[in-house]
Every structure is written in C-alpha cells, then in structure tokens.
Amino acid sequence: METVAINGTKRAGLGKKFTKADRKEGAIPCVIYGGKENVHFTGTMGEIKKLIFTPAFKVAEINVGGAKHKCILKNVQWHPVTDNIRHIDFLELVDGKSFKAELPVRLDGVAPGIREGGKLVYKLRKIKVKTTPKSLVDELVLVLSPMNLGDSVRVRDIEAIEG
Fold this sequence. Notes:
mainly beta, six-stranded mixed beta barrel, three-stranded mixed beta sheet, 9 strands
C-alpha cells in the first residue's frame, strides 16, 4: 500500500472568518474524523495533490502538531467556478474498526473475445468495499482471460479478498 506523507498545521479557529483567512494564504482547510476526536488542520496543495490527482488508492499519513494519523481520503469539496479545492475530509483508520472505501479495479490479461473483434465496455472503475485497516488492499483485480464474446462480469464475480 502506497503512503503519502502530509504535514499539516493546526487551525487557529473554526468558522467562516478563519476559513476565509486560511484560503487567502493558500492553505486548504481539512478535517480528520473517525478516531477519538476530530482534528482540524490546514494543508498545502503541493503535498495534497499527490493524494488527490491519481487514480490509485493511497493512504495518507498526516502529521499535525507532532501527532501522526493514518487516514484515507473521504471527500473533496471543489469551488464550482474556479475548481479550487475548498475543503478535504479524511477518515482516520482505527485498528479493528471497519470502514467503507472505493477501491480501483484493475483489468488483468486480454480476453479472447477482444482478440476476436469484440469490444470491452468498462463501466465500473471503482467499487465500494467494507473492510478493516488490517485487510486493506490497493486495488481489486479482474481477470479477463476467461471472457469470450458476449460474456459479462458483475461485481459479485470478482474474487473477494479475505477480510
């Protein structure tokens, strides 16, 4: 599992006034929830873009005031006109506590149906799963080698990984 390190600074205050000041300085307001308490901090675009602008599933290790939090990206709010990031939500991974995440699907191999002139229609690029931090994987693999013309694969046909 690939991990991205993010250094955050604790926010001075909450609310519209403080959030507006943070954005004016070029910082992105963020929150970590799911653990013992919510942590409000700001991050920079340089560190956070490695986590957002990628199709891969990555875990973030966020350092806020000396405390490290292992998290996943849960939600990104965008400005409707400028497409700047307005706010980011992170979910803290707590051992033994299950959570829901969207994992990317990777296609493996070439289907005989494609070699015969068929077309692969790839509708789901991510699948929602419920898992624990211990059994979290980077991606789900879909093997295409047994697919012939007219065949289809559903989510239930993907081999479940233990946990």
